[in-house]
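Example 3.2
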Amino acid sequence: MLLSACAQQTARIDSGDWAGYKQHFITAEGRVIDTKNNNISHSEGQGTGMLLAAAFKDKETFQKLWTWTRNTLQIRNDKLFAWKWTPDSKSVSDLNNASDGEILIAWALYRAGRQWQRQDYLDAAREITHDIKAKLLRRTKYGLVILPAEAGFESAQSTIVNLSYWVFPAFVDFNALDPAPEWDELTRSGLLLLRAARFGRWQLPPDWLALSETPALPEKFEPTFGYNAIRIPLYLVWSKHFNAELLKPFVEYWNFFDGTRFISPAANLKNNYIDSDDASPGIRAVIDLTHQALKVKASGAARGNNFQDYYSASLLLLAHLAWTEATTQ
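Structure, written as tokens:
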């Protein structure tokens, strides 16, 4: 087992970490609050909360999260989820889905179903994976890809994808839950695209990628490596892809800030300008995770208020969980 600062931090995660997360971001009825996004709730947040509840063996909270998610977001004419619920209207404000939400929710249900021997969770997870395969996957010259949502990302010119939606460790479990060649195909296409989609000074993957004759930066999105793409190394390490070729661009970007306490969480991949904000504790935990996977010196990064916002706190706990599972299973 690799011994590291990140692994040592993981050992310190206890019920207090989960209790703090619940206190700050999960309501009594089971709604996960995105505190940096006008307190909306979304399928990604519900899936993240469910995944963490299963990891902390919190049956009661898991059931509350799943009940709210199923009753409030699973209201389409399929088993996918409306991605956005708005507190002002206390209702779903967009029926389109977000595919990372589906993946995280199905993955959490699978893990909880196995852990607690709940066939209803496993059945619900399988229904979701069936509709992921039926509605969200497309064949391209780069292999099988997953759309970010059922609607809005395809045109005659290109298909837009988000490489942070390739949750590699989930695809491994989906192959056990719902055996199908699509899951291995998605893994292969994701790794292929990560090698092909490199832009800017540091050769980083963008948050959003257009697939046409060649992978390109789409005009309708900012050309950035940022708050989406930070999850790519998280999922690579979680699935034990300790691969220098895949992880090196991320490390080289973060090492650009060597010797300073500041690390920019985002870079423009056209002009190489960096974001003026400092990386949050959650992003810094992913940075350390990636360094440790390559057995290079970590940044000593994860510092500050772990509960400053939903996304940072989620990344922090997910990074610790990923390292634990990648180095002990």
